[in-house]
């Protein structure tokens, strides 16, 4: 089979080259028909899918001999981490819209994982929801089908005929037109022969995901406002919106219209995004957005409540750049970092310019002692025997008279080398720097730029807000968006020359002003890299492999340099106070820290290494965190807990993790609890245990919403509590978990441990139940809270049991 597919791939390459010579649609279709006829004359089916594989988006496992018989089947070999695989999803959607299952065309995704985390079915299902993949997908977790068919890279598309025979193969992206044209011709070919069957696939339903307020948030950032309070922005990727909120979670703006994908400038209600990721404030009124699937950078003005596009135009493009604003196409920008820094001013002389030099004066000669080497034969030699021009004059005089007598160059200027013979050709004049007017002291200016992690082209780009001479080599006019580091080849190559370096899907950025370095989460190499903003040098920090082309050196190991192992990190954040770099080690479901010093030791900081959703301090569980940022006062770490549809907040001083309670102005906040009317009094001995048993009664004729997060949340008396699981006993109330998934059909049992002595007279505990239910086609959220007044007494029992019936109307 592998040999047959190798022949097919070679033949497909030849076919595409042949089609380039034909502009006639009829002639092209005839060539494709002949090509299909050749591979259908003696068909070699690939065999059926292995029994026991897990399937998604279909009612039952599919078979080429049953449900897929009589169908043109398009096998898309992908892995959900791969940006190149994501790039072809719009092309597959176009095919699905053009050809239905009844037309005889079915797309089947074959998920062949790169990373260990991607083999897990729950993570695959989350990715299918995140990227809106609705066609059937099979989990080829052990890569058996991948190996059987000799697939070598992601993405690969293999087209099968109605009898399961391979008839076309494409490797990589940028084949949209080839795929559409071939499938269209194949439908015509097999329809004419009567081989396509119109039957439907077994029915299935996709369980809805809770849409509110967050759905797969990708990135988070913050800034201090003029009054000292904090402003938070969240890329609400799954709902194609941007949320701006206060530090307490009060939503100020939801930007992005109805939450449907699109590409439109306008006000906050009419503007549209498509899976936005990176966000960066330049001031408390201006926010930049990496509009990832629109391949654009958007500028949000919070005062004017407007959105405008400042780079990109909705079309995925190349890897060089240098065009201005929307005339420059981009490729899946994934993160942003706004940098404002003080740099030495460039020379005050004009930039290098092109000068049309006048022809040499009649009789102009050069003495033999300063003769210039002969130019190429196509350029006429100047007349001989004329005295040479003075060494300090860079251009020949434009007048007819002989040149003036020699002039003495100032001591501070370097001698100018002899010029080639003057001609009317364009000459690039390099002017040496002048001394500064104040006698040699540096003149400094403030420089602003927006750095872009261009995941789609595996590079680092920048949007320049003012005329800039970058690294003393390249001049970029204001508004230019251009590549500043990375060759465009996907690799893990470090280099003193930034454009000779190579990245592998850079996905996270942060800047350290003290060292003037940009840190990069290089996801596909599972490493953290850095760029010196002074020199452009690209260097390794932790993770990855010493071999540039090895993109499979991943794991979950604490250590220094290459000994440390990460798994597809997506975010980085610099913490000034501790001189540490924090990393969202996404596929290890952890936050890791790198303490900068002699060793740059990378250690696990938050998380257990297993996907989950709990807030138990450093033992909290996360699920593929995609972005992190440090608060403006360095006291908090905000975490975009992507697959948990939430923002987690870590307090550096208390080591506590809480979930940011996002709410609209009409919703009350969950304020510090106070006892009062309706609170249930409970008494227990110091150090005793309170056993709570919660039972829920749902309204009649309702049922739980499939796939929606049913949650319980427990709030203890003292916000400074810690947990017995990892801290010694102290004067705080303790519990094993503060929240979790709630099953209303079972009784929830919670155990709360009292402190050995009370530090506060206000001891209020609250249990909240958040459910999502449906009655027919109408769905709604249900919330209920029960409050307890807790007290301790030496004469009270050592344990206290209390049952609660939570009844919803």
TrEMBL record:
Region described as Disordered: spans on this chain: 366-418
Q: Which Pfam families match?
A: NHL, Thioredoxin_8
The UniProt keyword set, sorted, is: Repeat
Q: Where is the Thioredoxin domain?
A: 40-188
InterPro entries, alphabetized: 6-blade_b-propeller_TolB-like (IPR011042), NHL_repeat (IPR001258), Thioredoxin-like_fold (IPR012336), Thioredoxin-like_sf (IPR036249), Thioredoxin_domain (IPR013766)
> Pro residues bias: where?
371-408
Q: Where are the NHL repeats?
A: 621-653
PROSITE patterns listed in its UniProt record: NHL, THIOREDOXIN_2
Q: Which PANTHER family match?
A: NHL REPEAT-CONTAINING PROTEIN 2
Protein name, per record: Thioredoxin domain-containing protein
Q: Name its species.
A: Megalurothrips usitatus (bean blossom thrips)
């Amino acid at each position: 089979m592998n040999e047959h597919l190798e022949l097919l791939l070679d033949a497909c390459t030849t076919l595409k080259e042949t089609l380039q010579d034909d502009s006639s649609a009829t002639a092209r279709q005839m060539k494709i028909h002949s090509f299909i006829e050749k591979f259908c004359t003696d068909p070699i089916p690939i065999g059926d899918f292995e029994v026991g594989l897990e399937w998604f988006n279909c009612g039952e496992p599919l078979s080429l001999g049953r449900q897929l018989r009589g169908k043109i089947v398009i096998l898309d070999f992908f892995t959900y981490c791969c940006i190149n695989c994501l790039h072809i999803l719009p092309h597959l959607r176009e095919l699905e819209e053009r050809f239905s299952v009844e037309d005889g065309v079915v797309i089947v995704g074959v998920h062949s994982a790169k990373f260990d985390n991607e083999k897990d079915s729950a993570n695959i299902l989350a990715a299918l929801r995140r990227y809106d993949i609705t066609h059937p997908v099979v989990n080829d977790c052990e890569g058996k089908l991948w190996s059987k068919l000799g697939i070598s890279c992601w993405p690969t598309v293999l087209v099968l005929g109605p009898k399961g025979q391979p008839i076309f193969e494409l490797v990589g992206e940028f084949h949209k037109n080839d795929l559409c044209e071939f499938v269209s011709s194949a439908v015509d070919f097999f329809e004419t022969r009567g081989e396509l069957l119109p039957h439907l696939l077994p029915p299935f339903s996709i369980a809805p995901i809770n849409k509110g307020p967050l759905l797969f948030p990708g990135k988070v950032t913050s800034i201090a406002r003029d009054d000292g309070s904090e402003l938070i922005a969240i890329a609400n990727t799954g709902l194609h919106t941007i949320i701006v909120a206060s530090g307490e979670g009060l939503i100020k703006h939801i930007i992005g219209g109805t939450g449907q994908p699109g590409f439109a400038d306008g006000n906050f209600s009419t503007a549209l995004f498509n899976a936005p990721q990176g966000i960066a404030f330049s001031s408390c009124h201006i926010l930049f957005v990496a509009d990832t699937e629109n391949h654009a950078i958007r500028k949000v003005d919070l005062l004017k409540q407007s959105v405008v596009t400042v780079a990109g135009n909705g079309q995925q493009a190349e890897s060089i750049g240098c065009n201005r604003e929307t005339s420059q196409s981009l490729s899946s920008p994934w993160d942003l970092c706004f940098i404002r820094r003080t740099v030495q001013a460039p020379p005050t002389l004009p930039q290098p310019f092109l000068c049309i030099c006048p022809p040499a004066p009649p009789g102009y000669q050069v003495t033999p002692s300063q003769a210039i080497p002969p130019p190429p034969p196509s350029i006429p030699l100047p007349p001989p025997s004329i005295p040479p021009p003075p060494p300090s004059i860079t251009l020949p005089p434009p007048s007819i008279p002989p040149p003036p007598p020699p002039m003495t160059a100032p001591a501070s200027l370097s001698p100018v080398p002899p010029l080639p013979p003057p001609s009317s050709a364009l000459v690039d004049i390099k002017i040496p720097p002048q001394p500064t007017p104040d006698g040699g002291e540096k003149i400094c200016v403030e420089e602003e730029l927006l750095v872009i992690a261009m995941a789609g082209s595996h590079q680092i780009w920048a949007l320049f807000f003012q005329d800039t001479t970058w690294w003393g080599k390249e001049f970029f006019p204001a508004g230019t968006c251009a590549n500043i580091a990375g060759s465009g080849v996907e690799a893990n190559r470090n280099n003193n020359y930034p454009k000779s370096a190579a990245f592998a899907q850079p996905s996270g950025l942060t800047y350290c002003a003290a060292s003037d370095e940009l840190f990069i989460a290089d996801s596909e190499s599972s490493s953290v890299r850095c760029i010196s903003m002074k020199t452009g040098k690209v260097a390794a920090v932790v993770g990855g492999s010493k071999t540039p082309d090895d993109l499979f050196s991943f794991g979950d190991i604490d250590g220094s340099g290459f000994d440390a192992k990460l798994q597809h990190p997506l975010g980085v954040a610099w913490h000034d106070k501790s001189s540490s770099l924090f990393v969202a080690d996404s596929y290890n479901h952890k936050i890791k820290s790198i303490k900068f010093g002699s060793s740059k030791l990378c250690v696990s900081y938050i998380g257990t290494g297993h996907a989950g959703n709990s807030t138990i301090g450093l033992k909290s569980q996360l699920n593929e965190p995609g972005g992190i940022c440090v608060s403006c006062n360095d006291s908090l770490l905000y975490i975009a807990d992507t697959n948990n549809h939430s923002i987690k907040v870590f307090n550096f001083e208390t080591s506590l993790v809480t979930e940011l309670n996002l709410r609209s102005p009409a919703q009350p906040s969950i304020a510090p609890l106070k006892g009062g009317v309706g609170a249930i009094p409970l008494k227990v001995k110091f150090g005793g245990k309170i056993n709570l048993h919660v039972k829920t009664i749902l309204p009649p004729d309702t049922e739980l919403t499939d796939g929606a997060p049913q949650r319980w949340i427990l709030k203890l008396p003292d916000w400074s509590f810690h947990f017995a699981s990892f801290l010694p006993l102290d004067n705080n109330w303790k519990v094993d978990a503060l929240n979790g998934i709630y099953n209303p059909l079972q009784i929830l049992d919670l155990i709360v441990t009292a402190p050995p002595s009370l530090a506060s007279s206000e001891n209020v505990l609250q249990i909240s139940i958040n459910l999502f239910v449906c009655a027919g086609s109408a769905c709604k959220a249900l919330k209920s809270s029960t409050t307890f007044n807790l007290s301790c007494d030496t004469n009270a029992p050592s344990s206290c049991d209390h049952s609660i019936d939570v009844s919803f109307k």
